[in-house]
Amino acid sequence: MGSIITTTGYATVDFDKWPTFSKTILFSLMFVGGCAGSTGGGMKNIRILVLLKLVKGKREISKIFHPRAVIPIKIGDRVLPNEVVAGITSFFTLYIMIFILGTIFISLEGIDFESSAGAVAATLGNIGPGLGLVGPARTFSQFSHVSKLLLSLFMLLGRLELFTIIALFAPSVWKNEILPKNR
Questions:
Q1: Residue 4 contacts by C-beta under 8 Å, 6 or more apart in sequence?
Q2: What's CA 55's distance to the chain center, in Å?
Q3: What is the DSSP letter of 80?
Q4: For all residues of the chain together, what is the average pLDDT?
Q5: By the 8 A CB rule, do 7 and 30 touch?
Q6: What are the pLDDT digits (tens) for 117-164?
Q7: Measured between alpha carbons, how far is 48 from 50 in angstroms, rounded to an integer?
Q8: Is 158 exposed, middle or buried (0-12, 13-18, 19+ CB in 10 A)?
């Protein structure tokens, strides 16, 4: 389990032979990833913590009774700005959308759901081994060239972070108003 959450890619045992419950835990750990500032893949622990605090029951119940209340999200004693929370929410939504669409696209090859989802989660999170056909004792060789290119794109998206790649291709980044002018 440690190699899955830290994205080291090591596999000392063929976990594809484990019970479904154990594989489900491993699959969910593929989305968590390392800590903030880590080079490990996945969504990062701090983002998941903020998302959990965002949907925490007490906060939402208070918002029902007091709709105009400002209930900040705190990490320790520090209040997170709304822009940070919105950015994390956007990141999570985009990450899950890419995962779902990628899984659907890979499954169009006739590959089973476990293998398709495992391949996309493993590449998007830069995990290493996935589940099913891309398990720890197998390779990605059975995928078509198009799917391998898509999975390679997911590896880049996961390693360099989604917003970095999006910013790279956003035309507004290349305009003079955003980039500092040479003096």
A1: 26, 29, 30, 127
A2: 18
A3: P
A4: 84
A5: no
A6: 999 999 998 887 888 888 888 888 889 999 999 999 999 888 888 888
A7: 5
A8: buried
- Per-residue pLDDT of 66-117, as tens digits, reads 888 888 888 889 999 989 999 999 999 999 999 999 999 999 999 999 999 9
Q: What is the dihedral of CA 126, 132, 138, 143, to 10 degrees?
A: -80
Any idea what DSSP says for residue 180?
Answer: P
CA dihedral 126, 36, 95, 91 (to 10 degrees): -150
Beta strands in the chain (DSSP E): 74-75, 78-79
Cβ 163 vs Cβ 91: under 8 Å = yes
Token pair for residue 132? 């099913």
Domain range list for the chain: 2-172
- Please answer whether residues 63 and 76 qualify as being in contact, where contact means their C-beta atoms are separated by less than 8 angstroms: no
pLDDT band at 45 (very low <50, low <70, confident <90, very high): confident
